[in-house]
Design goal:
Elements (H helix, E strand, L loop, with lengths): L1 E8 L5 H14 L4 E4 L6 E11 H7 L10 E9 L7 H8 L10 E6 L3 H4 L2 H17 L21 E8 L2 E7 L25 H11 L2 H7 L5 E5 L5 H8 L3 E5 L6 H4 L4 E4 L13 E6 L5 H13 L3 E9 L5 H18 L4 E6 L7 E8 L3
Parallel strand pairs: 5-6, 8-9, 8-11, 9-10, 11-12
Antiparallel strand pairs: 1-3, 1-4, 2-3, 4-7, 6-7, 12-14, 13-14
Protein name: 23S rRNA (Cytidine(2498)-2'-O)-methyltransferase RlmM
EC number: 2.1.1.186
GO molecular function, one term: methyltransferase activity
């Protein structure tokens, strides 16, 4: 399948940061092109200079490495002038021939912007006849799986139709293990009514995004220990307590009384940059402090290299300018320090849906 370019979704306002990241990632792999950027559109299209094969692109451009991308779609058709009265015919013409094979699922998506939201109802309605047409052509498998919220699950080789406007769309494909598994690249979570703050969704999404179900069961098992720096009022501590973990909550503010009543939380009114674990070491360090990203990165690295924690999830607040450069420098610094100590680790960073102006980083160390 010939691929024309990459389409990545992002939070509105972060298009330039994503474009810089795409240009950096593709150039590093010897893939050349240019990014088309329009502010507050919630997506960036990277056009290849030379059409490439899907397998070649998919192996070299990895979703997990793109911190500002919500979704990664390999575009095989750009339709900027659709016939609004007969879009399906335009789509059918593109899908002539056998080069596309068979898709397992198909979704119709839009940007997470005010303009994009006006397309939401149309996208839901258009998805039904589109899938019917794809099945009739033998391009889409007959059996599909629906999620609990009645949305189409993104499974197997998935065809994406991304509408910029009612007469402007991209057609592309995503493959397993190299994409978000959620429509529009958005992992929506329900706010727990007993949680002390909405920040709890940040950590819940991070846990579900960075850790596999098996890792969640083993690494966040009952009675494992954690420190929460900048804990008050307890949004992140709440997620740990829900998993029956023992938590040292560190902050100068007041903790939620219901969390303290669980008996799983010890509160310490202390400076997060000077605190050390009560028993010398914990399994997890989590941190959502509002501080300069380099200061937080240095603190997290200090805990890891000195054996104060085994694993960590933390937020790096994004500066007003040069956001991609700042995050890249912080992550490079962390990895250099871990490598100096010959530590074995896995690191990943993502601008998650429930974050606004911060990137979440997860580091899991591995013993040999």
């Amino acid at each position: 399948m010939k691929i024309l370019g990459l389409l990545c979704y992002c939070r509105a306002g972060y298009e330039q940061n994503l474009a810089q990241e795409l240009e950096h990632a593709t150039a590093a792999q010897g893939i050349f092109g240019y990014a088309s950027v329009k502010l507050n559109t919630g997506a960036v299209y990277f056009q290849f200079y030379t059409p490439d094969e899907l397998a070649h692109c998919e192996q070299k451009v990895r979703f997990v490495d793109l911190m500002f991308a919500r979704q990664l779609v390999f575009v095989f058709a750009h339709l900027p002038q659709l016939n609004r009265t007969d879009r399906l015919t335009d789509f059918a013409e593109v899908l002539q021939g056998d080069e596309f094979g068979t898709f397992t699922s198909a979704v119709v998506e839009h940007a997470d912007t005010e303009d994009g939201k006006t397309l939401a109802k149309f996208c839901r309605k258009f998805a039904v006849p589109l899938r019917q047409m794809l099945r009739a052509k033998g391009v889409l498998q007959n059996k599909t799986v629906k999620a609990k919220n009645s949305q189409q699950n993104i499974v197997g080789k998935c065809m994406h139709t991304f509408f910029v406007e009612g007469d402007h769309a991209y057609l592309g494909v995503s493959v397993p293990s190299n994409r978000s598994r959620f429509e529009n690249g958005i992992y929506r979570l329900k706010f727990p009514p007993d949680a002390p703050s909405r920040s709890t969704l940040k950590l819940e999404e991070a846990i579900r995004y960075f850790l596999s179900p098996d890792e969640q069961q083993t690494l966040l098992a009952e009675h494992t220990t954690a420190v929460d720096l900048g804990a008050c009022p307890g949004g992140w501590t709440y997620q740990l307590v829900q998993r029956k973990m023992q938590v040292e909550a560190v902050d100068n503010g007041a903790m939620d009384e219901r969390l303290m009543a669980t008996g799983l939380v010890d509160y310490f009114a202390a400076d997060g940059f000077k605190y050390t674990p009560q028993y010398g070491k914990v399994n997890w360090l989590v941190c959502d402090m509002i501080e300069q990203p380099d200061k937080v990165a240095n603190l997290m690295t200090h805990w890891l290299v000195n054996g104060l924690c085994e694993h960590t999830i933390f937020n790096l607040k994004l500066p007003m300018k040069q956001r991609f450069t700042a995050m890249q420098e912080a992550l490079t610094h962390i990895e250099a320090k871990l490598q100096e100590q010959q530590m074995h680790y896995r690191i990943a960073a993502k601008h998650l849906y429930h974050n606004r102006d911060e990137v979440t980083v997860c580091i899991v160390t591995e013993s040999m």
